[in-house]
Design brief:
396 residues, seven-stranded antiparallel beta sheet, 4 helices
Length: 396
């Protein structure tokens, strides 16, 4: 079974892609990936790893300050938060707008997550189904396209994204995949985060007075220092209720293919993404653990973001560019005048054995994703025949 159709998701406009194994939902409001899960099938968990906010979301392009600010927050954050869920694209900046930008209507993480995306085409072939969406960012003068593909018999989603520059000058920008995970998939006892990082740094601006971690501190991944000088294992979610944090990690430069993943041991379910490290060298961890008491959070949210991208921190654009490279590694993307840039990456679901305690490593071939556990051997093979047609094949 292969198909793509228009649908409603929690009252929102969406497209649903399906094959015989998995079900993927993408929203037209903000382009968010709202669900990616196994379909009902014996022995497979149907948990959706992606975060679904506890508040009722709306189409973000319908946000109006006078009507919605009390529920979702001021336009600087509320426009995006009104529609956010799951995998959110941050383009062309990663972080909050400046006061001046906010007055012009910009919201957190750029224009892309707040605009209406449009269908370009649906393709159904004997072995695969695809959906191409696009959105124009009028302030940034960029056009963004994303094509999603599912192949028959595979629990892999193939992403191809292109940024086109409508300006007559080179454009420097931030490009981050803001992947957010939440309960019931993410659990303080049953889950762990897997990132092949070497070192990291904590956020320079705390966490609104409720930070778990010391600010602007270099550490060896995954052990970051808390305010008392103890070290916190960032692979474990939701350690301290009422706290939050942001920390960046430099992905291992010896790897051509980077990845982020999360494992739920009780469900025997692993969820992850693979991408070119040269495109996205940073993995930012953000956790909100019932710390924010104001709308729309209201002290209810447990969510962990694992945000892989071209820049190390969500900061004001002017601050991010002024800081320069971190650890000698780039901190932005660039698209030339009237030019374009394309990236490819994949997301996958894997049923793992009960004794699969942690993802130690990952390798790609032209037809499989090979998952290595803590014992140091390949334990799980995820069929991915579409890799042969991408730039990711045999690069790990």
């Amino acid at each position: 079974m292969l198909g793509c159709s228009k649908a409603k998701w929690h009252g929102r406009e969406a497209f649903v892609l399906v094959n015989d194994l998995v079900h993927l939902v993408t929203l037209t409001g903000g382009g968010h990936i709202a669900e990616f899960r196994f379909r009902e099938r014996k022995g497979l968990s149907t948990l959706n790893p992606l975060w679904v906010p506890p508040w009722k979301t709306i189409e973000p392009y319908h946000y109006r300050p006078g009507q919605h600010a009390a529920r979702y927050g001021s336009p600087a954050t509320g426009r995006t938060l009104s529609g956010i869920t799951g995998h959110n694209l941050c383009l062309d900046f990663f972080g909050s707008p400046s006061e001046e930008e906010a007055r012009q209507g910009l919201s957190i993480h750029g224009e892309a997550p707040s605009l209406r995306w449009r269908k370009e085409r649906i393709g159904v072939r004997p072995q695969e189904v695809s959906l191409k969406l696009s959105v124009r960012l009028p302030v940034a003068e960029l056009r963004f396209e994303r094509e999603l593909t599912l192949r028959r018999g595979e629990s892999v989603a193939y992403f191809e994204e292109t940024v086109k520059n409508e300006r007559k000058a080179d454009h420097f920008f931030h490009w981050t995949q803001h992947v957010t995970l939440g309960p019931p998939f993410l659990d303080s006892q049953a889950s762990c985060i897997c990132v092949p990082a070497l070192k990291g740094r904590t956020y320079p601006h705390g966490y609104e007075g409720k930070e778990l971690l010391r600010s602007s501190y270099d550490f060896k991944w995954p052990r970051a220092p808390d305010l008392q000088g103890n070290f916190v294992d960032l692979t474990q979610p939701f350690i301290r209720s009422g706290k939050g944090f942001v920390a960046t990690a430099l992905l291992d430069p010896r790897r051509e293919i980077g990845y982020i993943a999360a494992l739920n041991r009780e469900a025997n379910l692993l969820f992850g993404y693979c991408f070119h490290r040269s495109d996205f060298p940073w993995a930012v961890s953000w956790e909100e653990n019932r710390a924010r008491r104001y709308p729309p959070w209201n002290g209810r949210c447990q969510v962990r973001g694992i945000e892989f991208g071209s820049t190390p921190f969500p900061l004001l654009r002017r601050e991010a560019f002024a800081q320069g490279p971190l650890y000698g590694t780039g901190h932005f993307s660039m698209v030339p005048a009237r030019g374009s840039r394309t990236v490819q990456y994949v997301s996958f679901l894997a049923a793992v054995p009960e004794d699969f305690a942690h993802l130690r490593g990952l390798r790609l071939t032209d037809s499989e994703i090979l998952l290595c556990d803590a014992r140091g051997r390949d334990r799980v093979r995820v069929r991915a025949s579409g890799l042969a047609a991408t730039s990711l094949a045999k690069k790990s």
